[in-house]
Amino acid sequence: MSLFLYNTLTGKKEEFKPTTQGVALMYNCGPTVYNYAHIGNLRAYVFADVLRRTLEHNGYKVKQVMNITDVGQLTSDGDEGDDKMVKALKRLGKPMTLPAMREVADIYTEAFKKDLQALNILTPHEMPRASDHIKEDIELIKTLEEKGFAYRISDGLYFDTSKFPAYGKLGNINLTGQQAGARVEVKSEKKNPKDFTLWKLSSNELGWESPWGIGFPGWHIECSAMSRKYLGQPFDIHTGGIDHIPVHHNNEIAQSESAYGVPLANFWMHNEFVNMGETKMAKSGDNFITLQTLTDNGISPLAYRFFLLEASYRTPLRFSEELVRQVQDRKLYTLYKTLSEFPLGGVINDAYHSQFLEALGDDLNTAKALSLVYAILGDIEHLSPEDKRATILDFDKVFGLDMENQAKLLKSQTESIPPEIQALAIEREEARKEKNFKLSDEIRAQVEKEGYEVMDTDSGPLIRKKI
Ligand code: AMP
Ligand code: ZN
User: Fold this and answer.
1) Cβ of residue 84 lying under 6 Å from some atom of ligand 1
2) Residues, Cβ < 5 Å to ion ligand 2
3) Which of 15, 259, 328, 372 lies 20 to 30 Å from 421, alpha-carbon distance?
4) Rounded Cα gap, residues 400 and 452, in angstroms
5) Ligand 1 pocket test: which of 243, 279, 318 has the largest number of ligand atoms within 8 Å of its C-beta?
6) What phi and psi, each to the nearest 5 degrees, are found at residue 200?
7) Which of 148, 152, 173, 172 is nearest to 162 (CA)?
8) Which ligand 1 atom is at minimum distance from the Cα of 240?
């Protein structure tokens, strides 16, 4: 089945053709570990995971690399301000040393890996840390310098964007008034406003030795160096959030293509934002929600994953805890409960399976793919309950909603609910049917006091131990 993906580089959906037959080489720009990831960031990794699973479901052997940025990302894309890791050291009252920086990075990297696990995101094959690749960064910068793409100013070495005529090609970034010869920002020593740091000199001796002095690699060079080391050049797919298009990814392209004369990646794919109200959820802002906050509020990370799958990765999403809670109670748990009641031993239905591949082959249309689950559940004519189960569980290899385990867990939990709690739930259901909501609320409170919760799913009440 052919797989069409929206390529930011060409601005259209294109058939995926790998550089090596049967293999897909993918790089995902990873987190900057100066703080916990928020659920907006995590959309970028759920998207990458669905992409990987789709490629695998289509028979590709995938190599997935996701970097960890633990040095070098400055506060603004315009190369201003502190390194974000240095800011974290200040925020946490830690000493200004490389070991302390590593310690802070370790804390947030571990937290990030736990988030990935909770969201049932497959572990990437490589998760290289930027701070372990300074040697590779220096080699790449030296190549750029030798080829005449770099120049020195007082705070470091910069890439000269006027030497790369295709600069800004990703997403057709409008550079009017920004290239060489145009008026340069006041005070900046940069030749062109879009020129960016390759090596930033340290103002306080914190950093690594280099031919240009003690300092840090630029954030963009890290991704160019690490992707080349683990995937070669060109590789197949590069992903990130849409905020990476105008600066970070165009800079990666400029460096890698200038240094080696071949494209960096063939497909560039970008997920849209998760917004809070009208504004983007941002780590640096105060409107950010972590996965832990959701869990503390009784929402399973998998319900958030389901919520994301209901929209195209290219649609902005407005986060609402209420909506995710509804997805959890009315859809996800209903599905687990239904599956837990179906017998084992069915076969995958070919007709639905091809529709499923077709939906995903249309730029990962997960919303359509999910709607097929409901079509299957409602189809009493062509599928037995066991075939429904087998087909939906096969789809879940891409959805990643952990359906098989969760359905089993639910079944065993339901069987181990004490009879007195089950009796209370039946009493509550009767009160609800008689529209005696006062009594049904009282019974619900009693059930909760005993450490259980009742949810009204579409296929009847569900009791489970509180999470
Ligand atoms: P960072 O850790 O800040 O480098 O970001 C990690 C990933 O999250 C990047 O791919 C960003 O583009 C992406 N990202 C940042 N904010 C959001 C958001 N509100 N919604 C979706 N993706 C985001
Ligand atoms: Zn990157």
Assistant:
1) no
2) 29, 223
3) 328
4) 26
5) 243
6) -100, 125
7) 148
8) 10
Fold of 4-271: Rossmann fold (3.40.50)
273 C-beta closer than 6 A to ligand 1 = yes
Q: What percent of the chain has pLDDT over 90?
A: 74
| Cα distances (Å, whole numbers) of residue 179 to 76, 166, 450 | 20, 11, 68
Question: In a mutational test of the pocket of ligand 1, which residue from 32, 34, 38, 41 has the highest number of ligand atoms less than 8 Å from its CB?
Answer: 41
**Tens digit of each residue's pLDDT (9 = 90 or more) over 112-165:** 999 999 999 999 999 999 999 999 999 999 999 999 999 999 999 999 999 999
**Centroid of ligand 2 to alpha carbon of 328 (angstroms):** 33
Determine the Cα–Cα distance for residues 34 and 326; give it in Å rounded to an integer.
32
Q: Convert the pLDDT of each residue in 314-332 to its tens digit.
A: 999 999 999 999 999 999 9
CA pair distance 101, 103, nearest whole angstrom? 5
12 CA to centre of ligand 1 in angstroms? 23
